User: What shape does this take?
Amino acid sequence: MVATTKPAEYGAASIQVLEGLEAVRRRPGMYIGSTDQRGLHHLVREIVDNSVDEALGGHCDTIVTTIGADNVVTVVDNGRGIPVDKHQKANKSALEVIMTVLHAGGKFGGGGYKVSGGLHGVGASVVNALSEWCQVEVRRAGKVYRQDYKRGKPVAPVKAVGTCGPDDHGTTTRFLADTDIFVAGHDYDFTWLSQWFRETAYLTKGLKLTLIDERIDQEVTFFFEGGIVSFVRHLNRNRNAIHEKPFYVQREMPTCLVEVALQYNDSYGESTHTFANNISTIDGGTHLSGFKSALTRTINDYGKKNGLLKPDESLSGEDVREGLTAIVSVKLGEPQFEGQTKAKLGNAEVAGAVQTAVNDGLNAFLEETPQAARRIIEKCLNASRAREAARKARELVQRKGGLESFSLPGKLADCTERDPSRAELYIVEGDSAGGTAKQGRDRRFQAILPLRGKILNVERARLDKMLQNNEIRTLITALGTSVGDQFDPSRLRYHRVIVMTDADHDGAHIRTLILTFFFRHMEQLILDGRIFIAQPPLYRVKSGKEERWVYTEEQRAEAQAQLGERSEVQRYKGLGEMNASQLWETTMDPVNRTLVQVNVEDAIRADETFDMLMGSAVPPRKKFIQTHAREVVDIDL
Assistant: This one.
């Protein structure tokens, strides 16, 4: 029955106007993405980015960020200091305008910044709005100015509170994130923040960045005279470089400043990372297009000119990028990013600028270092031969019906749903668990693919060898996207791909091998949010007729406390230990299950982690295990 209550009158009085920064506090996710740990880190980034913008303009060379024992964040720089004189239009101090008005700052063509990372102009004001309190001190023209704020509102006007030396200048910002907004508390992650500081220091040559965490008594300082050349060496530290000196070019073009560094190694993957105004553009853009085009053309031209390639022989883009580690960084006045995440650069003119810089610089590098040039082209030729071998292997498999969607692998238990957006594929460890999953699934939309044992570690194998592996070939066939230069994510047969392995160290290893395959050969599926990890329960806690499935040690302790210490506890190490109905109820039923979506929030950190865990260099992996051994809570013997 439809309710007959008279609705409220909709008129002018119904229109709500949010004054000042009230909109930020009401809808924080619109400005910082989320109010979890990621959003908390965003506050630190916004303030530090303002200081980095001073460094990009040549006005600052030192930034110190401190997380106090009381969770107060302090950022100190030696830049010019935020202007404090009266803003004519606002009739108040420029400092107050910057800290309390959205879209106010020196980054909108007013001459304050030639290059800037944060072009939304909401950084400082948003941090102010989402802080319980904030304080800004400016050292400028021999005086120290201060203004205090509470939840975004000034406590009093800007005032001079002291003097400083003529060479003392800069800005100090202190803030305490508001736990009314960040309900999980002040959970700053020193490791994550230090990784970002390291990356920023690489991209801003000559900038000294210090992070101090008084809560855990840790401090780290980053300073790289070599800039992105040091960045490339860092990324290649666990790989064997095939030429000692990295290539580097810096060119001031009419449209932007271009910086590119690269070095080849003996691996089979590619690690190219792009940045625009120090912002990581994980989806690439015009600067990446220009780089790829220049790299392919220059290496081919040099090879043919010097007799290293036959006149009718050409290397493809994939050939010249195998084993490549590269950083492409551009700095421009008016970057145009596609999407809210700034993940892709759209400025058309940047492609030509990067192409010209790399063409000229790389050609000179190859001419000046003929031994390195020969090794690079030999590496590319080996990649070309392997690619041809992979093509023949793929054609052979296709002739046998192994990589076409009309000939699905026999071990795949497909679903009846033909709309990919409604279908999901469970990649299951072992035939036993696969059999249980087939019995417990909803066959209308859930497909099951059991994999036998541990698949090939693709971090150490070329595409041609990878295609000879039965389990990987079966997986590629089931997904329908193909791989290599024929990879097409639009042909994915299931829009939710779920990795379901045992809750023991073997299961974790298999899961890592599968994720390595996706990251290196089907990364777009991760970026599209198609890859998930199933969370099977660790324990069943039972007392009489009442039972509970729990997924963590904390939940187990809580369940035992509620059901009594004499309750029966069963540990599930393998999926096969559950019957079909239990597996459905705990891990496969969309109503009850827990899935973890795989994403690449930090592509560089992910690249380094996969290389360290799955690459050929043993010492870094051994060091990682030794460092984190004490953190292991449960290991199966």
Observations:
- The domain at 228-391 is CATH 3.30.230.10 (Ribosomal Protein S5; domain 2).
- The longest helix spans residues 370-399.
- The first strand starts at residue 62 and ends at 67.
